Every structure is written in structure tokens, then in C-alpha cells.
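Re: [ENG-882] Designed sequences occasionally contain unexpected residues at chain ends

Forwarding the minimal case from QA. C-alpha cells:
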């Protein structure tokens, strides 16, 4: 069965699309690994029989992992943004990504070991920086700008002033 979605995100990998898809399925709810297709012949990044594509879902978003080789790298122009309910959920996803060979960045951003960017964003942050009281929004924004992983308590304190 092919992926039934009309629009699918295609992510380029260097031979490890299946490993990435399995990590995402184990880490995030509403995620799964579907069909794995092997190359019917040799191709520039592999040989006949190598995994060519992997259908998977990340939190309900249909994706296709393509083992296209080393020609292209991921960057922050694409990211998954995960809205989290609290610090525990923020820590869970952040730590899963960073502790599995990923790296921290700024303002709630991190990269997984395959170079895919993630924004692990507590809802309290989103609400605070869009607060109609612009002074509240600025305090929360300024606090966020000092963080790697978002500290929910610090955002709430900044929001209160």
C-alpha cells in the first residue's frame, strides 16, 4: 500500500532513512513506519536491493524518506515544530533528540542526528509572545532569546514580570 496522502513531505537522507523513521516512530506519538521500498537497480547513492524509500509519519504528518546520498544536507529552512504542554513534555522530546546524537541550538531549536531541525515549543511560550500586552510579549520574547531548551517556569516568570 502506498502512502494515501495527496501531499507528503519528502526528506532526503544519506542511506539512513529507515533508521531515522524508526527513531521518529519510537519517539513521537501518532508516528509510524510504513512500507520500505528497495531499489530495483543500482543508483548513484546505492546498489540494487538497498533501501531507497521509507514511508513514515511524524505526529500525523506523512513523510517519505529518500536515501538520495550525500549531495544535499538539511538546514533550518525546514523544521518540525512540536507544541508541548509543559516542561516534562518539552524535556522528553528535546532530550530524545539531543541525547540521540543531536545538537542544541537557540530559542527552542535543536537538530537530530540526521540534521533535521526541530522546534520544541511549549504552548506557554507561543501564548506569551503573542500576548496582546506588548510589554508582556517582549519580556517573554527577551527571556526566550537567552535559552536553548525553553524553560517554562522562566517564561511564566517573564510573563508575570
Amino acid at each position: 500500500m502506498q502512502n494515501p496522502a495527496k501531499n507528503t513531505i519528502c526528506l532526503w537522507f544519506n542511506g539512513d532513512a529507515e533508521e531515522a523513521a524508526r527513531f521518529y516512530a519510537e519517539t513521537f506519538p501518532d508516528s509510524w513506519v510504513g512500507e520500505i521500498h528497495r531499489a530495483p537497480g543500482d543508483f548513484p547513492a546505492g546498489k540494487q536491493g538497498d533501501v531507497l524509500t521509507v514511508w513514515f509519519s511524524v505526529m500525523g504528518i506523512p513523510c517519505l524518506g529518500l536515501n538520495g546520498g550525500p549531495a544535499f544536507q538539511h538546514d533550518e529552512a525546514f523544521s518540525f515544530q512540536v507544541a508541548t504542554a509543559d516542561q516534562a513534555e518539552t524535556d522528553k522530546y528535546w532530550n530524545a533528540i539531543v541525547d540521540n546524537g543531536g545538537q542544541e541550538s537557540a530559542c527552542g531549536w535543536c537538530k537530530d542526528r540526521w540534521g533535521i531541525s526541530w522546534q520544541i515549543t511549549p504552548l506557554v511560550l507561543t501564548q506569551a509572545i503573542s500576548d496582546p500586552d506588548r510589554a508582556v510579549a517582549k519580556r517573554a520574547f527577551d527571556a526566550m532569546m537567552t535559552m536553548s531548551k525553553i524553560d517554562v517556569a522562566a517564561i511564566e516568570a517573564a510573563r508575570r514580570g
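QA comment: On inspection the terminal residues look reasonable. The radius of gyration is 18 Å. Proposing we downgrade this to a documentation issue.
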